[in-house]
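P.,

For your records, the input lines for the assembly:
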Amino acid sequence: MNRDWSTLWPILLSSLGETLYMVSIALLAGGLGGLVLGLALYCTRKGNLLANTVVFNVLNVLVNIVRPIPFIIFLTMIYPVTLAVVGTTIGTEAFILPLSVMTAFGTSRIVEQNLVSIDPGVVEAARAMGASPWRIIRTVLIPEALAPLILGYTFIFVAVIDMSAMAGYIGGGGLGDFAIRYGYQRYNWAVTAVTVLVIIVIVQVVQFFGNWLARKVLRR
Amino acid sequence: MSTTSDTMVRFRDVTKVFGTGSSAVAAVDGVTLDIEAGEIFGVIGYSGAGKSTLVRLINALEPVTSGSVVVDGDEVSALSERELRPVRASIGMIFQQFNLLSSRTVAGNVAYALKVAGWDKPRREARVAELLEFVGLSDKAGAYPSQLSGGQKQRVGIARALATSPKLLLADEATSALDPETTRDVLALLRRVNAELGVTIVVITHEMDVVRSTCHRVAVMEHGKVVEVGEVYDVFSSPQATATKKFVGTALRDRPGPEALERLRRRHPGRLVTVGVHEDGTSGASLTRLLREHGLDGSVVFGGISEIGERPFGSLTLELAGDDATISAFLTELATTTDVVDLGTAADPRDDPRVVAGASDESGEGDSATGAPPSGRVDEPDPRDAWQSERWPGTGSTGTSGLGRPGTQGTQPGDFGTEPGTFGGAR
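Structure tokens returned:
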């Protein structure tokens, strides 16, 4: 066992690195895309800032179509796009694209839901002061919903960690791949357990940080 | 960008329809109305009457369906969303739920309006300090809205609305979420804004008391239409529309409603007469004089007098003792100075045509609920009316200090206290 772990640790560490790399890029790109998509969903909804039935319906249906697709199937579904954009369909980089896209769609609903909780009266007050829609988005919508948005992104982080476990299917590496190959396939339960433990620690740290940040923002 | 005129807001045949086809509802239906510069104009109506929609047509938060709205020379009903922004910035607005940004401090909320209007930071800071001083919240500059009381929140709302020195302030049910005392403070502040800064104010409310204590002129709305408009005093003293009569009844409760009248008649079977009391107490004086001259006894059994538009107004219901001929002569002479309604006797009852069922009868309900005698005392449903039976006939003057407008006496000195001259310097 001990001899085993001395070779496993470096692999575990590099897998952790791959996971953090994939997850952070996906959170950055997908999180931003999701914010834009969520804002678009909220603002184009009937009676809102930029009400536009056509745009809203198109976005709404699109999000509803993409989100329920199991990620492992989505991964293979957008092979042509991945190939065109990244140039390959295997490896960590090839995995980041579908991961980011799925993250964006997942985030959009969470952003939209958090924005809906904003008192429409506050938006109306800003309009009454002569603020432009873009200014209202920047200075009213996002700041007013910041605390729930932070918690929403914390939630998304865990979902992205979950999805990143499937990177192994296209040779993307990461902790999920490590647990399957060195734990499950070699009947080494301890490896799986240790990997799970590492994931739990990451999630706990991020959740704690997210809660702390949201509370700090909500101190008012 | 604006032409000088005496009319601040001009509605011409304005209609606003929500929905389409069979579900279409005209929230505002063919309204033509002028709001003059410098006045406090009240728009009163029950919920769903269209008053909140009407006020949103002024700063075009809602676009009109047809007709034209002109604000200080700008035809807002013809402007694009982009063109409207500077116009909106020059119109202040306060709301029932205050609508403060919870993510910003008190100072940040006031500064926000200035930021939108493009003021630079040093000017913003000076102006925010000045405004918070004006509304008496300088010590709360760093507090967040959640740490404030309702009245303080509304004062922040007022400071924010006044930030860019607007000529027009729209108050949409601004006191409806506040308790009576805070309501008085906020209304006093609005009157100060009007008197000291010359800001035209449009007050939307469902409380006649707000109109009575604060407004110069009033429009009564019902089903999207303006059913009555005029000087507050005139509307109060001779309400025409049914809705108006109901509102007047709820604000004054000076005339016995059908049920209260029935109870009165049980206790006072004699001749009951309701006498209007208004205009600086002259008719109150003539009432005592005439009673004396005709050798009649009159005991007050119901009534209420308060101030409307800074003039005393109300009515007293008397039970008269004497023979019919003397009473008739007395009533005839009294009718030359004030309005008199003969309610007849218990044996020969007559109705007060000014009373609308369900309006002024609330006080009567209150009597039976508390088990108090339904009559035989001067009804005092609202402590703000401050009518005290001992005062009458007394000196004969009804315009005494006890009948003051709510809030005008400066209930809390220093609360909004600032020197009039210190405000509005840096514009």
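Two observations worth noting. Chain B is about 35% helix and 25% strand. Residues 359-427 of chain B have pLDDT under 50 and may be disordered.

Regards
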